Amino acid sequence: MSGFQNLANDDETSVILGYLEGIENGKAFMEIAKKAVREKPVILIKAGGTGAGARAASSHTGTLAGSDKAFNAAFLQIGIIRAMSIEELFDYAILFAEQPLPKGNKIAIITNAGGPGIIAADSVENTKGIEMAQFSNDTLDNLRQKLPPTAGLFNPVDVIGDAKSDRYKDALDIVLNDNNVDAGLVLLTPQAMTDVDIIAQVAVQVSSNFSKTIMTSFMGEASVRDSISLLQKNGIPNYPYPERAVRSFARMAQYVETRKLPDDKPVSFNVDKARAEDILKKAVDSGKATILDEAKSIIEAYGFKTPQVVLAETSNEAVKAAEKLGYPVVMKIASPDIIHKTEVNGVRVGLKDKREVRNAFLEMTSQSKRHMPHAIIFGVHIQKMVKGKEVILGMSHDRNFGPLIMFGLGGIYVEVMKDVSFRVAPLLRRDVESMLEEVKVFPILKGVRGEKKSDINALIDAILRLSQLVTDFPEIIEMDINPLMVMPEGEGVVAVDVRMGVFEKGKQRGENS
User: Fold this and answer.
1) For 90, 128, 157, 389, which has the most beta carbons within 10 A of its beta carbon?
2) Strand 379-384 relative to strand 16-20: parallel, antiparallel, unpaired?
3) Other residues' Cβ atoms within 10 Å of the Cβ of residue 393
C-alpha cells in the first residue's frame, strides 16, 4: 500500500490506476488512499465482487451486506473513483491525464447532428453530479449572430449538418468563453460538407486558448480515424460514443468536489459508554451470540429513544399492560429463538381494545409454538404504537473494513426492496447525508403531498450515534434497529425494535459475521 503514497509524490505521475481483488487491512488502506487522493486522482477497478457476501448472516443488514458493497462504500468515503470495467478505467484515465480539472460541473455540447446531441444531453441529465450549462444572454446573442437561423442555440448547440470548421470554431469560441461553462464536448458525425480533419485542428487550437476540459466524440470509425489521431496527439480525448465522454466528465467533476471537502473528524456524542460496556461484557461472558432485551438498554446508553415495553406472560397480563400504556398498542412474540417474528405471525400492530389484545396473545403464542415447537417463548412484549416513517439502521462486520453501517427502507420488505445504502464506520456527517440521498425513498422523509417533513436531523444524529457505538465496541458484529420511526420535524426518532449479534469468545470471525 505504500505504492499509493509513492505515486502520489511522483512528479511524473498525473493519475493513479489500479486493479484490486482484495486487501488485508481495510482501515490502513483507507488512511493511505485518502492521502493519495488529496494529491492525485485514484481510479481502481475492483474484481471479484460477486463472491463472499453474508452467507451466514441472520440479520437484515447482514443479509444485504457483502464485500463489494463495503468496497464501494469505502471508495465513496475516500474519494477513489471506481471503474466498473476495463473500458471505464481507461476512459477515465485518459481524460484525467490529458485535460485540466474543471472548476465546476457544468458542460456544454456542440454538435452537427441533432440525435447525438440529444443523446448526450440525456446522458448528462441522467448522470448524478453534472449539469447542462445555462448560457448567458451575451453567449446566446453571439451565437445568434454567428450561426444560421436554423441552428440550435440553447445547450446543446446544434451547428447543423452542413457545418464546416469555421462554424465549429465560432461556436466553440463563444461557448467556452462563457463563465457558466466548465467543460465542452464536441460531437461530430461526418456528412457531405464536413471538413473533419480541419474541425479536429480547430478543436486543438481552441482548446489551447482556454483552461477548460475539452472532449470530443468523432463518430464514424475509418472516416474520422486520422482526425482522432490528431486530437489524441494534442491531448484531447476522443470517445467513440458521447455517453462515455459524459460519464468520464462526471467522474472528473466528482473528483473536483472530493478535493474541496474539509478534513473533518467523526462527531463524538456524550454517551454512557460505561453502561453499554457493562451490559455487553456480561452478554459476551455468558456466551450469548444474540442480544435482544439488553440491546435496547445498550442503544439507550448511546442516546436512542425507545418506547416503553412490558413483558406479558398471560393474556390477562397483556390486557393490563395495554390498558396502562394506552391504545393502540403493538404486540410482539417474546422469544430469544425467534429472530424474524413476522415469519411466525409473531407481530400484531394497531390493537385498539382489550378483546383484540386478548385474542392476539392467544393466537401469537399458539402459532409461534406451532411454527417453531422448540423455541423458548416467554410471552409477548407490548408497547404503545409509535407513528412515523419506518426506516432501518443496521450494521454488519465486514472482514476487510470492519463495521459497515446500513440505512434504508424499514419494515419487513427491506430484503425484497433492497433500497439501502452502506458506509464504513466511523462516519462523518457528510457520509450520512450522502447515504440518505442514495436511497430512493428518501424524498418521502422530506414530505410529499402535504405531509410534514420528517426529523431528518434527528435521523442523521441516530446514524452517527450508531457509528460511534459499533466503533467503540468491535465485539458487536451484527445489528438491526428495525424499525426506527422517524417522527415529524422537531420530534426526533424512536427505535422500536433492536437486535444485536456479538462476537463469541473462542470463535473466529466470519467474513461478514
Assistant:
1) 157
2) unpaired
3) 27
Task: Write out the chain's pLDDT in tens, 513 residues.
Answer: 567 778 888 888 999 999 988 888 888 999 999 999 999 999 999 887 654 444 444 455 555 555 788 899 999 999 999 999 999 999 999 999 999 999 999 999 999 999 999 999 999 999 999 999 999 999 999 999 999 999 999 999 999 999 999 999 999 999 999 999 999 999 999 988 889 999 999 999 999 999 999 999 999 888 899 999 999 999 999 999 999 999 999 999 999 999 998 888 898 999 999 999 999 988 888 887 888 778 999 999 999 999 988 999 999 999 999 999 999 999 999 887 787 788 888 899 999 999 999 999 999 988 888 888 888 899 999 998 888 899 999 999 988 899 999 999 876 666 666 789 999 999 999 999 999 999 988 888 888 777 889 999 999 999 999 999 999 999 999 999 988 999 999 999 999 989 899 886 545 444 443
In words, the CATH class of domain 105-236 is alpha beta
The DSSP annotation for 87-118 comes to HHHHHHHHHHHHSPPPSSSEEEEEESSHHHHH
Whether the ω angle into residue 237 lies within 30 degrees of 0, i.e. cis, is: no
CA distances from 380 to 72, 211, 315, 462 (A): 40, 69, 9, 27
- The count of other CB atoms within 10 Å of the CB of residue 122 is 13
Per the structure block, which three cell numbers stand in for 437?
440521498
Element (H, E) at 72: helix 67-78
**DSSP state letter for 152:** B
Of 211, 139, 125, the C-alpha closest to 171 is 139
In sequence order, the 6+-apart residues with CB closer than 8 A to the CB of 188 are 111, 112, 194, 196, 199, 216, 217, 218, 219, 220, 224
CA distance 173 to 159: 13
For the chain, the first-to-last Cα distance in angstroms comes to 26
Domain spans of the chain?
A: 2-95, 105-236, 308-384
In CATH terms, the superfamily for domain 308-384 is ATP-grasp fold, A domain (3.30.1490.20)
Report CA dihedral (57, 339, 420, 412) to the nearest 10 degrees. Answer: 140
User: Which homologous superfamily does the CATH classification assign to the domain defined by 2-95?
Assistant: Succinyl-CoA synthetase domains (3.40.50.261)
Looking at the chain, the number of H-run helices and the number of E-run strands are 19, 19
The grid coordinates of residue 258 equal 472530493
Residue 199 φ/ψ, nearest 5 degrees? -65, -40
Are both 105-236 and 308-384 of the same fold?
Answer: no
The radius of gyration computed from the CA coordinates of the chain, to the nearest angstrom, equals 29
Phi, psi at 307, each rounded to 5°: -75, 155
